[in-house]
Specification:
The complex is a heterodimer of chains A (216) and B (873). With 216 residues, chain A is an alpha+beta fold. Helices cover 39% and strands 19% of the residues of chain A. Chain A has one domain: NADH Oxidase, CATH 3.40.109.40. The longest helix of chain A is centred in the middle third of the chain and has 32 residues. In chain B, the strands form 5 sheets. Chain B has an 8-stranded parallel beta sheet. An 8-stranded parallel β-barrel of chain B has the order 13-14-15-16-17-18-19-20, surrounded by 6 helices. Chain B contains 31 helices and 25 strands. Helices cover 45% and strands 13% of the residues of chain B. Chain B folds into 4 domains: 298 residues, Homocysteine-binding-like domain (TIM Barrel), CATH 3.20.20; 272 residues, TIM Barrel (Alpha-Beta Barrel); 91 residues, Methyltransferase, Methionine Synthase (B12-binding Domains), Chain A, domain 1 (Orthogonal Bundle), CATH 1.10.1240.10; 125 residues, 3-Layer(aba) Sandwich (Rossmann fold). The chains are: A alpha+beta (216), B alpha/beta (873).
């Protein structure tokens, strides 16, 4: 599976031009091991969308109130609910090395984070092409936890896709997803083609985030 | 044999006569009703367990999609319709009866306390009861309306809890058992005829459900799992591993449902049929789904579905129905094509097999290596690790043996001064989080044995039982309850017989008594025992004769702790390896040995080549083909390249320099563990240990730490250095304890990831670094309740507690932990960290210190603990 080296380094806290140093062989072998054990899968489903006064949003399978998501979904009539995961094997690996070799656990963690992001970009890119063929434009992927889009929506999004059964994504009481390298998101569908090029990270309003792509 | 009757799709045949319901199970509780008694709408001439022996059993099909057609909305909970739309449910059940289904699945799939909590809008008890009653009512009405009817049975349907079990998730195993028990008790009381556990993708969760069923009723239990297109569970389990587990738990039928269509299920069903000794169930989806105009459609139609099912029936599957997307039409067409076929009787496969959560290990012609190193006997370091609760040491013993070619790991943690049952449970769980090898539970403590078997994810090897009455009557019930292959030692109240004849007699006794507990001979491995040849001239010969006779006369499988043979002799591995080869030649099925010992593994690897078990000698060539064979005492890596990972990375990392010549300081800075350890060893020859620590190691760590703070060294390198330093410290500590020098620590620090949070990477990073700086870290793990932190802080009287939280949703439990600490342990300083925390946040919840990264926590510990040390002086 392809993975952007720069993204791995970003998750590890490296600055833009900084050298990997003696960590290079470790990163190489983590990429290799993860490529063998990751089993990326995704699901998506389109729902009717109603944007209501007071930043309330009715996405058929989920209802919420979020200013940032309302802005993101402006001019949209449908919403795609999306979920992806790298699967449980990745968590088993990270768990194992958390007990035996933390340096490896940390690099696996970062590499897997970069992988799931890249996988989501690929999957969403394909959807974008299909929709554009029909004259429809997709908004950037927006996940619970971005801006004021509440994590409480996680169960509804996952249930809407039957992601528990079909992808094995489960939630803890505090709405953490397991497998940990999983993503849920909503993607607005609109006839108007504007601000569609940004993906994942940049769409988030938490501009003081240390891991933000454009902050480093 | 009775003819299967046909009364589906308008075809009517003769009603079969009422008959034989003797035998089988009649011990169910509900309201005095028994199988075979036609009361309260039961339509059974036969107990299902009897019926399924020579009849096809047809399940019903999908429920969710039919409810949606009737108006169930997205997000609406299907079970609520049991109360709000009972007539819809009754009609759906009846439509499946008309289609020819024998099993009506009550609409209780998602009903559990988590989804319907106390004080919520719905009463769980009513939902489950009505779910079962609707199906019973459908059956009653159908029997009254129909000219004829097939026997039919109502299944209480149990799906996954919706949560992931520990250690990766946050649901405790026993909590899962209780969740299922609650539903089962209601369902049994309402009149269900059997328990159907469906759509499971986690072996641990299905174990919880099966145990719950077995422990709260005596109805038949069927379990089906959801596999992916590659034939694996989402949690990684193979079909063989699933069968081993479920048969061990004594389910009455097992198989597949959901996830795939019949086409994709076929090869998986074939694998299951090849190994299963109970009837196999196949309940596929209507096909592979795709979305079309907002609706889900499937790639095959009902006719194609039925034809695929016909093919599956011909393979030997006798219990069939449908899952998502299937309708009465699918079932009716399937019934038509299959009902007149001959049911293939299920053959007992007589396989001796154990499993982990992911893989099964069969004991047969291929000898199996059981690693013996997780055992404190004669190992002072291991004993110390147990006393210190140093699990990492034990885990490394496990992973090293895996790397060196073990197929199974023996686990013995018995030490008089520790709480063996707790330690056993903990070690089993921890080992299963770093290795997927099956485990052998090695203890004579019955409580430890039961706790290990209960929490074990798979079907374990149990070491051991023997011919003593008391032991057999204590161990066999555990094996019957939790599943397992049990080692039977050829000794009894009179000791170890001196002759093979005497040992065979005990083996027979063990087989017989096991049978009375429902344990088949294939679930027993006989250990003929070795007496050392240093005191018993014919010790080896008697053992080998016993081995041979167990196989020839009793058709049994064997196991042996090989190294006893040389007790009291010099150069033990020489004798051990030769004896091992002899035992393998006599057909030994499993050997408990040290896989890290080159002599033993040479014997094993060359035996396989010589015995025609290593095709083209490819394993032999892979291991010994590159250059010289290593001298004895040099272990050559033999396992798959999965292990600890230390070596792979290290090797590449050292390309730049010769490890032997690297200074300790450089080894630490560059994060090369083996180089650092080698350098530490060399330095110990010429310098004082404390001097090495203070003048070489601490400055190296400081250099890396400062680099990290400045932003020139990054987290992975910081940790690699810490790990290299740890290796160096181990070398130095080993030297100091040999020479009797005391090792000092700077003080105790508690670390915990707070309740609700199950991500512990951050906490573990801090732990590695604090240990480097000689702090004694009490690691409470993740998802730790506030009370436990407080209790430990008071008991151990620690001055510093570090708390970690990753999610905004778990910061409140961090705040609560701090509040309780302030009350009960006001002397404690609290440092906090984690992805969502900020200085401001930390101030708000009343922490003493916010640590933005791992080095910051080391700096704070230095400050707090040096201050408290001064005060105590």
């Amino acid at each position: 599976m392809e993975v952007d080296r720069k993204e791995i380094l970003r998750y590890l806290g490296y600055g833009r031009e900084q050298e990997e140093g003696p960590v290079t062989p470790l990163i190489d072998s983590c990429v290799e091991e993860l490529s063998a054990s990751a089993e990326p899968k995704h699901l998506s489903r389109e729902y009717e969308l109603r944007l209501l006064p007071g930043s309330r949003i009715d996405g058929s399978c989920f209802q919420t109130e979020s200013r940032s998501l309302s802005r993101n979904l402006k001019d949209c009539s449908q919403v795609i609910v999306f979920a992806a995961t790298l699967g449980m094997g990745v968590d088993l690996l990270i768990q194992k090395y958390s007990k035996l070799q933390m340096s490896r656990a940390v690099v696996l963690q970062a590499t897997a984070a970069a992988m799931i992001e890249e996988y989501c970009n690929g999957a969403c890119g394909q959807m974008r092409q299909i929709y554009e063929g029909e004259g429809l434009y997709l908004r950037p992927r927006f996940s619970p936890g971005y801006g004021d889009f509440p994590l409480r929506c996680q169960p509804d999004l996952l249930d809407g896709l039957e992601a528990g059964k079909r992808l094995g994504i489960k939630l803890t009481d505090s709405y953490l997803m397991m497998p940990s390298k999983s993503v849920t998101a909503v993607i607005g569908v609109s006839r108007k083609p504007h601000r569609c090029q940004v993906k994942g990270c940049e769409a988030c309003e938490k501009t003081d985030c240390v891991y933000r792509r454009d902050s480093i | 044999m009775r003819k299967p009757i046909a009364c589906t799709g308008g075809i009517v045949s003769e009603r079969e006569s009422r008959g034989d319901h003797e035998g089988g199970r009649t011990d169910i509780e509900p309201a005095g009703e028994q199988y075979g008694k036609k009361t309260g709408g039961q339509a059974q001439d036969m107990n299902i367990l009897q019926r399924m022996k020579d009849h096809f059993i047809f399940f019903d099909g999908g429920m969710g999609s039919l409810l949606q057609e009737k108006g169930l909305k997205a997000g609406e909970l299907p079970e609520t319709w049991n109360l709000t739309h009972p007539q819809v449910l009754v009609e759906i059940h009846k439509s499946y009866l008309r289609a020819g289904a024998n099993i009506l699945t009550a609409n209780t799939f998602g009903a559990n306390r988590l989804k319907y909590p106390d004080g919520g809008s719905w009463d769980l008890g009513q939902l489950v009861e009505k779910g079962v009653k609707n199906a019973i009512q459908a059956r009653t009405e159908f029997v009254q309306e129909a000219v004829c009817s097939e026997d039919s049975y109502v299944a209480l349907d149990l799906g996954p809890t919706g949560k992931l079990l520990k250690p990766l998730g946050d649901l405790d195993f026993e909590e899962a058992v209780e969740l299922y028990q609650e539903v089962i008790q209601i369902g049994v009381k309402a009149g269900a005829d059997l328990i159907l556990i469906e759509t499971m993708s986690d072996t641990m969760e299905v174990k919880a459900a099966v145990l719950a069923a077995k422990e709260s009723c005596s109805l038949p239990v069927f379990a089906t799992m959801a596999f992916d297109g590659k034939g694996k569970l989402l949690t990684g389990g193979s079909a063989e591993a699933v069968v081993a587990l479920l048969e061990g738990l004594r389910v009455d039928a097992l198989g597949l449902n959901c996830g795939l269509g019949p086409v994709q299920m076929r090869p998986i069903a074939e694998k299951i049929l090849a190994v299963a000794s109970v009837p196999v169930i196949v309940n596929p989806n209507a096909g592979l789904p795709r979305s079309q105009g907002g609706k889900t459609v499937y790639d095959i139609n009902a006719d194609q579905f039925a034809r695929e099912m016909e093919g599956i029936a011909q393979m030997g599957v006798s219990m069939m129905g449908g899952c998502c997307g299937t309708t009465p039409e699918h079932i009716e067409k399937t019934v038509r094509l299959c009902r007149d076929k001959q049911v293939k009787p299920v053959e007992k496969k007589r396989r001796t097999v154990i499993s982990s959560y992911s893989q099964a290990v069969a004991l047969g012609r291929e000898p199996v290596i059981i690693g013996e190193r997780i055992n404190p006997t004669g190992k002072p370091k291991f004993k110390q690790a147990l006393r210190d609760h140093n699990l990492e040491y034990i885990l490394r013993e496990g992973v090293t043996q895996e790397d060196n070619g073990a197929h199974v790991l023996d686990v013995n943690v018995g030490l008089p001064e520790i709480d063996e049952p707790s330690m056993m449970e903990e070690v089993v769980k921890e080992l299963q989080s770093v290795t997927d090898l099956p485990l052998q539970i090695d203890t004579s403590n019955l409580q430890a044995m039961e706790r290990a078997l209960r929490c074990y994810n798979g079907k374990a090897l149990v070491n051991s039982v023997n011919g003593k009455e008391e032991v057999m009557d204590a161990v066999f019930p555990l094996v019957a309850r939790y599943g397992g292959v049990v080692v039977g030692l050829c000794l009894d109240e009179d000791g170890i017989p001196e002759t093979a004849e005497g040992r065979i007699r005990i083996a027979k006794k063990i087989y017989d008594r096991a049978a009375s507990y429902g344990i088949s001979p294939e679930d027993i491995l006989i250990d003929g025992l070795c007496m050392t040849i240093s005191s018993e001239r014919e010790g080896a010969l008697i053992t080998l004769e016993t081995l041979r006779r167990v196989q020839d006369e009793l058709h049994g499988k064997t196991i042996l702790g090989v190294s006893n043979i040389s007790f009291g002799l010099p150069g033990r591995e020489i004798i051990n390896a030769a004896f091992f080869t002899m035992a393998l030649y006599e057909g030994l099925s499993a050997a408990i040995i040290n896989p890290n010992n080159e002599a033993m593994m040479r014997a094993y690897i060359s035996f396989r080549a010589l015995a025609g078990l290593d095709e083209n000698c490819s394993d032999y060539i892979r291991i010994y083909g590159n250059g010289d064979a290593p001298g004895l005492g040099v272990t050559r890596k033999r396992g798959k390249a999965s292990g600890s990972g230390d070596s792979g990375q290290e090797g590449k990392g050292q390309l730049g320099g010769n490890s032997g010549e690297m200074s300790l300081r450089d080894g630490i800075i560059r994060g090369l563990k083996e180089a650092a350890m080698a350098a530490a060893k060399e330095l110990l020859a010429v310098r004082d240990p404390l001097e090495i620590i203070n003048q070489e190691m601490i400055p190296a760590l400081d250099t890396v730490g400062k680099g990290f703070e400045k932003g020139t060294v990054f987290l992975p390198q910081l940790l690699m250095s810490a790990e290299a330093a740890k290796g160096g410290f181990e070398v130095i500590k080993g030297y100091m304890s040999k020479t009797g020098q005391a090792q000092e620590t700077k003080g105790k620090v508690i670390l915990a990831t707070v309740k609700g949070d199950i991500h512990d990477i951050g906490k573990n990073i801090v732990k590695v670094l604090l240990e480097n700086y000689s702090y004694d870290v009490i690691d409470l793990g993740k998802d730790v309740p506030p009370e436990r932190v407080v209790e430990t802080a008071v008991k151990e009287h620690v001055s510093l507690v570090g708390l970690s939280a990753l999610m905004t949703t778990t910061v409140p439990s961090m705040e609560e932990t701090i509040r309780q600490l302030r009350e009960e342990a006001p002397w404690v300083k609290v440092m906090v960290g984690g992805a969502v925390l900020t200085q401001k946040y930390a101030d708000t919840i009343g922490a003493d210190q916010y640590c933005r990264d791992a080095m910051a926590s080391v700096n704070y510990a230095e400050k707090v603990l040096s201050a408290s040390a001064e005060i105590s002086i």
